[in-house]
Write a structure and sequence with these properties.
Layout: H1 3-15, H2 20-27, E1 33-34, E2 39-40, H3 44-48, E3 54-55, H4 61-75, E4 78-81, H5 85-91, E5 97-99, E6 104-107, E7 114-121, H6 127-140, E8 142-147, H7 156-159, H8 162-167, E9 170-175, H9 181-186, E10 193-197, H10 209-216, E11 223-225, H11 231-242
Length: 244
């Protein structure tokens, strides 16, 4: 439940349209709802400006679905990360969307999109992390543009998108292998850059550790670096910067 919904409940009580007991029932699960194996944090949007997001990996389908239903009952929206098509098929909520490229499931989210976030990838194999960032930021209410496969092996591909880079308010860059693209972008713009190392690459990429170290050691100052494959974290940070 966000600020708008709580204000609406209070205004309805003030005007006499909603009885006090009914309003109390609507608010009684703040700050969280205990469903046994999970304590669903309905209060998080009020504290952080971002609602709780369900991390599906490591949970059973039944657990994911029950948490999602608890959130949907209160807010008519939820976002699930690291999900499978099987989980989505089991969910059976009308109008929910399975984002196959990122493994996310969403329903609801902010309808009005603000600002301008640009998401870039070095290669096509980096798209899952980039899509996780893009879906997250869009769900939260940011306008998002994406440009994929513009890495350092062919920088001429990047040059054709200079206008998008110039117009962006925040830039997310997902890259595996040697993880060089965020540094290249950082040398081209004064916009905040959020780098996402991905687990893409051959043996000595060490599952994204090489890209992570490269981004942490960039000679371009001021680049924020996420954990390996953490497109979700990048999407949240970009949204917060974008909507300041």
């Amino acid at each position: 439940m966000d600020n708008k919904k709580i204000k609406a409940v209070l205004q309805s009580v003030k005007s006499g349209k909603t009885p006090v007991n009914e309003a109390l029932d609507a608010l009684k699960h703040l700050p969280y709802e205990d469903i046994g194996y999970a304590k669903v944090d309905h209060h998080r949007h009020l504290r952080q400006g971002v609602p709780e997001v369900i991390f599906a990996s490591g949970k059973t389908d039944e657990q994911v679905i029950k948490i999602a239903m608890a959130m949907y009952k209160k807010s008519r929206s939820f976002l699930i990360s690291k999900a499978t098509k099987k989980t989505y098929n089991s969910l059976k909520i009308k109008n929910s969307i399975f984002h196959s490229a990122s493994g996310m499931i969403s329903i609801g989210g902010e309808k009005t999109k603000r600002g301008n976030i640009l998401v870039l990838t070095a290669g096509t194999s980096d798209i899952p992390a980039a899509e996780e960032a893009a879906v997250t930021a869009s769900f939260l209410g940011s306008k998002v543009n994406t440009v994929y496969d513009v890495g350092v092996a062919g920088l001429h591909r990047l040059m054709g998108n200079k206008d998008l880079i110039k117009e962006a308010k925040v830039i997310i860059v997902a890259a595996g292998m040697e993880g060089a693209l965020p540094s290249v972008i950082g040398g081209m713009t004064d916009k905040p850059i959020i780098a996402v190392p991905t687990s893409v690459g051959y043996g000595t990429s060490f599952g994204g550790i090489t890209a992570l170290f490269a981004m942490l050691n960039s000679c371009v100052p001021g680049i924020a670096v996420m954990n390996v494959d953490n497109g979700f974290g990048a999407g949240v940070l970009a949204h917060k910067i974008n909507t300041l």
